[in-house]
Amino acid sequence: MSSLAQALVASAPERLADLVLPGPRDERWRYSSLRALNTRTFKAAPSESSPLDDGLRARIASRSPRIVFVDGRYDAASSDLTALAGVVMLAPSSAEDAVPPHWPFARAAAAASGLNLRVAASFPSPIHLFSITTAAAQDTIAQHALRVELAPGTEASIVHHRLGAADGTAFLNLWRDLDLADQATLRWVEVADEGERASVVIGTRALLAASARLEFGEVAAGAALYRHDLDATLAGEQAELVVRGCTMVTKRRHADIHIDARHRAKHTRADIVWRGLADQRGHGIFAGQLIVEEGADGADAALSNKNLLLSPHAEIDTRPVLEIYADEVKAAHGATVGRLDERSLFYLRSRGIAATEARRILQLAFAREPLLQLADAPLREVALDALAAVLPEDAA
Amino acid sequence: MLKIDNLHVRVAGKDILKGLTLEVKAGEVHAIMGPNGAGKSTLGYVLAGREGYEVTQGSVSFNGQDLLALEPEARAASGVFLAFQYPVEIPGVNNTYFLRAAYNAQRKHRGEPELDSMAFLKLVREKLKVLHLKDELLNRAVNEGFSGGEKKRNEIFQMAVLEPALAILDETDSGLDIDALKLVAEGVNRLRSPERAFLVITHYQRLLDYIVPDVVHVLADGKIVQSGDKDLALKLEEEGYAWIKARKREEQAAFAS
Fold this sequence. Notes:
Number of strands of chain B: 12
Low-confidence stretches of chain A: none
Order of helices and strands of chain A: HHEHEEEHEEEEEEEEEEEEEEEEHHH
CATH class of chain B: Alpha Beta
Oligomer: heterodimer
Strand content of chain A: 35-45%
Helix content of chain B: 25-40%
Strand order of the largest sheet of chain B: 6-9-10-3-11-12
Radius of gyration of chain B: 19 Å
Number of helices of chain B: 8
Largest sheet of chain B: 6 strands, mixed
Radius of gyration of chain A: 20 Å
Helix content of chain A: 10-25%
């Protein structure tokens, strides 16, 4: 077992003795090599998480209700559940029961720590979920699982914030299991403020019953290694998945996004729009897969991934895949990689806008477009703010 | 205000302007007419500073400074404005945001205080009214989904807000019906002032019925081949550009003999 795997399974070494991490020949991990991580020495997280410093406390204080994990441990003292009483129930994790075999990280995360969140009635405002890695967690594995269940007909919004130390070298491993009953609607936005030396692996599985709807938004700014797999199964008729995200990687940051949508029932709909920008030595990867299974007639599957390559040293890899085993399916997929339009740049400059600012305006406009389509206003704000933080005014 | 002397410009390895000389004084309106491929649009682009337009010879001075040495944004800040023949669509960038960024960038460049969003909105509303444009234009993305006429009017609107010293209109009349043409011309005429000069590039005389020029130049094969008053435009309209070519042939024949 590699040192990474050993540290990952430290909470249950016997049960997880057979854990095998993706190897160098695994095609799905082609652009997210674990080789560099395997040469490092990681510690398992301590059983008691360190208290949050004033800076972090101030950052989370304005966000409530909130559920806070610090270095992989649920932090009840920092959480604020008052508003959720009677609506959203928290329980110890049961996520370990349901981990998919292809995602070994999920087993490790679920065995380490976790929480079940059951939404019994609709909750109108966003619930903030924080996964924080502190400065104390250098070269440490921070991992936890989260299972979110929505009762039939309920609606909820979740913002998942990941906060890391600017120079943090922790390995964050998150597993999330989203279970949407009939006619439930879950809106989710994923934002992060992590240093460029952090490593992050996230697995998200979503199971949608009839007429359930998942709207998922993300701003991915990358890390030393950033990998997120979203695997959604549209199991009930008329279930719907909408994904709107963007990747913006600079410096030597890496972001590898995999989205799989499986149409298993009739008249299901998946609509995925992702944009990517890579500057300096950034590396952005997007793999989107739409699978329409036999019998899922009337499915509507659409996937679009457009990218901008902003520097000769940056890299973009994109792979849209469509697999259709049903008749009467509406499907569209496409991917492009291009450069910033010189005509647009000149147009802005000819009006007096300096070249660096003109570039920033055009990049921001390109990345914003999918996020502007997020239907929920508070979540859209969070996503747009996160994007503006990634593209600051002084650094185009 | 603007002095162009013996300007030679090469684009993609091809000589387009071949010794163009022109002087425009403050308060004047000059029309540049000429057949397709004469170099009219090249003149507009090279003055605004577009990349890929290589000046191989000659000079351009604008209010005493070497215009060609400046970046496009610095040219704009010093008062040069190009109304594009084909205005660029910029999805995701709000028209008001774009204009305010441009307006404040120019002011900052000149060391003037920036305008806050309330004061700026007041300014643009006034300009809209003058140009008979709808408020909703402000909330749309820059030129996105605009009709040809709307794009051209948006150019004139930008010009009205930015108040340049020298406005270059590159075929602003092309693709406009007569009503839109009148509106655009009215917008330009309102901005005419003793401190401001216009360079109106056009293929047809029609626009010059509404924007009456002080001087008309004929640009052919990269040079000004004839200059005159507004009647020259009418003569061109009657006789076509073939008349210029014929005249040039006569000159060459006379020179050869």
